[in-house]
What we know:
heterodimer; A: MetI-like fold; 13 helices; 76% helix; B: mainly alpha; 2 domains; 12 helices; transmembrane helix (chain A); transmembrane (chain A)
Amino acid sequence: xxxxxxxxxxxxxxxxxxxxxxxxxxxxxxxxxxxxxxxxxxxxxxxxxxxxxxxxxxxxxxxxxxxxxxxxxxxxxxxxxxxxxxxxxxxxxxxxxxxxxxxxxxxxxxxxxxxxxxxxxxxxxxxxxxxxxxxxxxxxxxxxxxxxxxxxxxxxxxxxxxxxxxxxxxxxxxxxxxxxxxxxxxxxxxxxxxxxxxxxxxxxxxxxxxxxxxxxxxxxxxxxxxxxxxxxxxxxxxxxxxxxxxxxxxxxxxxxxxxxxxxxxxxxxxxxxxxxxxxxxxx
Amino acid sequence: xxxxxxxxxxxxxxxxxxxxxxxxxxxxxxxxxxxxxxxxxxxxxxxxxxxxxxxxxxxxxxxxxxxxxxxxxxxxxxxxxxxxxxxxxxxxxxxxxxxxxxxxxxxxxxxxxxxxxxxxxxxxxxxxxxxxxxxxxxxxxxxxxxxxxxxxxxxxxxxxxxxxxxxxxxxxxxxxxxxxxxxxxxxxxxxxxxxxxxxxxxxxxxxxxxxxxxxxxxxxxxxxxxxxxxxxxxxxxxxxxxxxxxxxxxxxxxxxxxxxxxxxxxxxxxxx
Lengths: 283, 272
């Protein structure tokens, strides 16, 4: 039975080798790019240049602002829709499928879709005109109206990526045992009490996963931002892209990428620390 | 009581309708933009429904320089990614689902960890590596990084799918004289096939949608999203809308096919 003991290792070996070559090797190389000059000397110069770059603070600010606006909004929306699906009304399966549709839609495409709504001669302006609110088109997407550009990005991400949170939460809700909910009913719990004291605590692992996944991806937001207003609103991932694509400086680009990873790990750690699930507490 | 029950029901349906409209209307709007005449985009005031149906915008998009080649590139890259991801990831998923082996939890944890790395962190260092290996600006290069991005998801989801295939069936086949491989090929694989097909489609969509790495690792051999992104500022609005619509189509088709597996797939990611 020796082969049987070794078999699982043979099966996971390709994955391990692949990830070593295409994930962990680039990772260590990125550290090298960010901290070593082309001649191989250690330097903090690339980070200094990144920090002192005129767009850096703006990019950092907007990345954070977008993330802390979008992620909670998605969590609340997804929770409400998940509870709606959980009432198991007739047609709720079709409804779930419709709500999950944006799961397959690219961030770039979502940005372009929202652009068609917010652009100068877009649907929103047309509707406002037909309702008699405006005479001439309003320039939502322009340097003069950063707030509207921000809003359109939030709406695009909210529209596109709430689906993944929803699917995770619906799966989580289905794992909650009916007995507990019935027990709560028997004990006379009101719906909001049931939600607050039974459903939400049991949903915590799902909420945590959804939060982590969404935060990591929201921090990397890039194509949506570019599609809606180009460089009007800078973000960290966008800066990493431009430093490579336009200025051909992969050192500073790598510094941005590393910073993004540090923030991602920090946020994940915070979620794991402050949203501990019960099994982790025991351990 | 009956009155209250039906009122509650009506409220539920109303809420569901609102949400469904919120999801569907933007897709409909981009579809309308893609199938209305080119100058409709700039018309003011615009009517909500375009004046007439027209293929002009789509035709312009498809005839624009670089669109068809990038479209074919996208399909090739996505197919390559799909094949690579399944060949590499499915066995790992099977191993995690079937065997209790030392290091299994570390392996699962490591897989989850790789999802935390930003795409930029992989793509930027890989440019120099790929130039050295002759993979820069090739479809294989893009497919390799897309595989790296899809693999963790594929392993996790495949694990969930193989857990759903009863172990006893395979054991029965082996008792009846099948080899381990034979039992897998004849019993486990056919049962897991629909689920694996869902993984494959999901992988295809990940690759089809990815734009950062594809944009950085190519110059001439762009995928469709990379092509749209790099020509974004220079292209007319109707080109962008047609492009946006075009990118959405496969997503809609695939979502239809994998709808049964949605909860299965994403439920698995929550069981960390």
